[in-house]
Structure formats: C-alpha cells, structure tokens
Amino acid sequence: MRLVLLGAPGSGKGTQAKLLKEEFNIPHISTGDLLRGAIVEKTELGLAAKIVMDKGQLVNDEIVLGMLKDRLSKDDARDGFILDGFPRNLVQADMLDVLLKEINMPAEHAILIAVDPEEVVGRIAKRAEVEGRTDDTEEVVRDRIKIYENLTSPVVDHYKKHEVLSEVLGTGTIEQVQQRILSVLRF
Ligand code: ADP
C-alpha cells in the first residue's frame, strides 16, 4: 500500500496515519515529524528549519525532499508507506512523482481528509494545550491555513488528474473517519 494523505493542518492526517500504520504494517512518514526530529537533535538543518516552521512557512523543497528520500530508502518502506505532510505544493508533487517513479513505487492512493477551516482552528487550539508545539499559536495557525489554501490545496487537483484521489469527510469521531478511509482503500 502506497498512500499519500492530504488535508489542512489539524485535519487529522497524523492521527489517521498512525491508525493506518497499525492496520497495514507500513511506516507512517511525516515530514513534520522528520523536521521536528532534526530540531530535537539540533542538527544544522533542524536549527534552520525551526525558524521557518515557527513562522508557519514551508521549509525549502529540496531539503524536505532530501529527508524524505533518505527515509524512503529504509528497509521498512519496501512494502509501502503512508506519507503525511508531503507534498505541500505543486513543485513537491512533481518532485515526489519523479522520486517514486525512480524507485518504482508510484503512489496508489491519495486521500484528502476534508474539514472546515474554522473547525481546524479549534482543534489545533486544543492540541496546543496538550502538545505545546511552538507553531500552534493562533496567529501562526492562521498563516499555516493560508499557506495550505494557497499552496497545498492545488495538490489535490494534481492527484485528481492522476486519477488516484479520494475524498473523505474529516468530521465525526476518529473511528468514523478511519472507517471512511478504510472503505476507500478496500474498494
Ligand atoms: P500540520 O499538518 O499540522 O501543519 P506538520 O507537522 O505536517 O503539521 O508540519 C509542520 C511544519 O513543518 C509546516 O508548517 C512546515 O513549516 C514544515 N513542513 C512539514 N512538511 C513540509 C513540507 N513537505 N515542505 C515544507 N515544509 C514542511
């Protein structure tokens, strides 16, 4: 199973990706998590990325692609993967197509988890209380949503054109959303 998850910040991509990872026994590859890992390790890349992430902006395409390429080359990704947070713009979508073609693993499904932007702001405010992410302040969240609408949402059409896109409703319980995704994948 080679799956790309799409959706606004706070749409529940990360939560659903973790459940799908258990279900299908394939790795959940989140570029946000990879970047946060680099920040914790205080690598040069991590320190540079933190400044950009804390403003809610996108980290350089080549840098994120490099991290992703490394991660996809690990053994556990041989039988598939769940991509969360990449691609985030059309340039990355093209880069990903090229990379996956090179390694002979084209994406089989792209799933958009659709949620209302106002709902998303409320969800992230709750997450901020629990996780304390420095990019989850209300102002930065609004900027991240704008970036999503301007740069990331066109990626949905990219996958529509490739005829691999399905859309599921992201409201309701975590289990309901999971069932909607599973029924798309089992179809
Ligand atoms: P969310 O889905 O809630 O926005 P993520 O953990 O996916 O959170 O991403 C957090 C931040 O990491 C983004 O706002 C961005 O700065 C950076 N980031 C993650 N993935 C990418 C990517 N593919 N390209 C550029 N920046 C990225």
Q: Explain this structure to me?
A:
The chain is 58% helix and 12% strand. The chain has nine helices and five strands, in the order βαβαααβαβαααβα. Strands 2-3-1-4-5 form a five-stranded parallel sheet, with helices on both faces. It is globular and about 40 Å long.
SSE diagram, text form:
Blueprint (H helix, E strand, L loop, with lengths): L1 E5 L6 H12 L3 E3 H10 L3 H11 L6 H12 L8 E4 L5 H13 L6 E6 L2 H15 L6 H15 L1 H8 L3 E5 L4 H13 L1
Parallel strand pairs: 1-3, 1-4, 2-3, 4-5
Helix pairs in contact: 1-9, 2-3, 6-7
The protein binds adenosine-5'-diphosphate.
Could you name the CATH homologous superfamily? P-loop containing nucleotide triphosphate hydrolases
Strand residue content: 5-15%
Characterize the overall form: globular
CATH topology: Rossmann fold
The number of distinct helices, counting runs of at least 4 residues, comes to: 9
Biggest sheet, strands in spatial order? 2-3-1-4-5
Helix coverage percent of residues?
A: 55-70%
Overall domain count = 1
Provide the CATH top-level class: Alpha Beta
Residue ranges: pLDDT <50 for 5 or more in a row?
A: none
- Ligands and ions found: adenosine-5'-diphosphate
Per CATH, which architecture? 3-Layer(aba) Sandwich
